[in-house]
Structures are given as structure tokens and as C-alpha cells.
Amino acid sequence: MNHEQIQALALVVDEAAQTATSISMLTASVPELDLEGAYDVQRASMALRSARGERVIGMKMGLTSVAKMKQMGVHNPIYGHLTDAMRVNDGAAIIKSEHCHPRVEPEIAFVLARELRGPVTAQQALEAVGGVYAALEIIDSRYRDFKFTLIDVVADNASSARFVIGNTSRAVDAVELGNLGMVMEINGQVREVGSSAAILEHPARSLAELANMLAERDEYLQAGQVVLAGAATAAVAVEVGDHVRLLIDTLGTVEFTVA
Ligand code: 0L1
Ligand code: MG
Questions:
Q1: Is the pTM of this model over 0.90?
Q2: From the CB of 231, is ligand 1 less than 6 Å away?
Q3: Nearest residue (CA) to ligand 1, atom 9
Q4: pLDDT tens digits along 29-54
Q5: Which CATH superfamily is domain 3-258 in?
Q6: Distance, CA 62 to ligand 1 centroid (Å)?
Q7: Relative to the alpha carbon of 107, which ligand is closest?
Q8: Cα separation, 8 vs 201, whole angstroms
Q9: Is 77 close to ligand 1, i.e. is its CB under 6 Å away?
Q10: Ligand 2 center to residue 75 CA distance, Å?
């Protein structure tokens, strides 16, 4: 894939995200798009956002559970970029019409106290963490009917749309990071119950895997960046009027409404 082809595909996914318009899979019309090219498209779409004034403030890991990897027929997670425009304050609203078909996932977020360069072990990755938070990720595939291949979803920035981080920060050694109970409620009803163990068996492994994947491109995570480690349960579709709340052992709550 040459530079012009990558740029053209980045414009397609960027326009779809900006206008909340579902699109056909890129691989349907560009079968030669491979995983490396898909990450190039993802980066080119982030450059379009940067040109409009958005700032990359972190990264997310996706497909981090065994169930989701099996569903996609893959053995490795993927990553996407998070910008300041995607961040929603705890308790604030997301606007459903700004998305094609939003779904919510219960997650753990890390905020880095110092830069993190791979290759690293999970233990080394944790040494860069300044705080651990409860988080909710709102994913929104721009592909029609939420149907895509691994390559398509990577090009679409791993379905990143919005994220919310709780107000309670804990040090990594102050929590049972490998097995935090998580309860996600919608409108006061329990919808999903899970454990942080579902995130690549331990969220620290997810953070290290991200640093290691970035190192393959000579990239690294910077101090102050947010990292969403991945979902602990299946994603749940949200509707206008919904109130979503996540409670995580020792990390407290995080919530948003849908307007
Ligand atoms: O954050 C995630 O795990 C989602 C990654 C992309 C796959 C999807 O949109 O379901
Ligand atoms: Mg997620």
C-alpha cells in the first residue's frame, strides 16, 4: 500500500467517525490491505484528527479476552489511539447521535507516571504506572452492523469512540489488580459481572503487550498517558436515556448517561 492509498482509506474512516455514518469494510474493496497497512491507516486517521486540533492522550487495548479473540479467530490483541476529544468526564453524557451503534465495556485504566518503552515484562510495565482507575469505554465500530475483519477494525482505530475514567486513583500495589471484581449496571440493573482477570489474564500483561507492540514501530508510551487495558466482559449496546455505572472493588465507581 502506498502513501496515497493509506491516506485515502484514512479519509474514509475519519469521515465515517466524524459523521456517524456506517461504512462497508475497507477490505471488501481493498483486499490487499494487511495488518501493517491497517495500523498505517489508523495512524493516518489520527494525523487528520491532530490537524483539526485533537491531541492523542493515550492508547487502548482491544480484543484482550480469550472469548473475543476466539470470536475473531486471532491470537493477539490490537490497539487504538485515544484523543482528548474522546474523553468524557465522570458522570457526564455521551451523545448517541454522534455514534453509529455505541456499546459500552467495563475496563481498567492506567495513567503512566513515566514513559514506558518495550520490550518489557508485565512487572516492568507496572513500574511505570502512576495510578489505576475504574473506566468505561464506549466503542463504536464504523462498519455496518458492527461486522468487520481484524484488519478492518485496526484501520478503524479499534472502534475507539469515547471513554470515561473514575475519580478514584489507586497505586498498583494497593489493589488486587489481577482479580478485581467488576459490576456494570444500566439503569440500576446489573448487566455484566466480571473480573480484571479476563483482561489478558492480568491487566499488567495487557499494558506490557501494548508497549511491546509499539516497540515494533519504535514507538513508546509517554508519561501522563492513559491506557485502557481492555474489556472484562462483553460489550453492551446503549440507548438514549441510559445511565451506565461501573463499580470495581477498591477502585470505586465511574458512570455516564446517554443523551
Ligand atoms: O475495545 C475492544 O475490545 C473492542 C475492539 C474492537 C472490536 C469491537 O469493536 O468489538
Ligand atoms: Mg475496550
A1: yes
A2: yes
A3: 159
A4: 999 999 999 999 999 999 999 999 99
A5: Fumarylacetoacetase-like, C-terminal domain (3.90.850.10)
A6: 5
A7: 2
A8: 38
A9: no
A10: 17
Residue nearest to atom 3 of ligand 1 (CA): 62
What would the pLDDT profile of 174-223 be if each residue is shown by its tens digit? 999 999 999 999 999 999 999 999 999 999 999 999 999 999 999 999 99
Domain boundaries, the chain: 3-258
Cβ density class 188-205: b for 16+ within 10 Å, e for less: eeebbebbbbbbbebbbb
Residues 6+ positions from 92 with CB-CB distance below 8 Å: 164, 256, 257
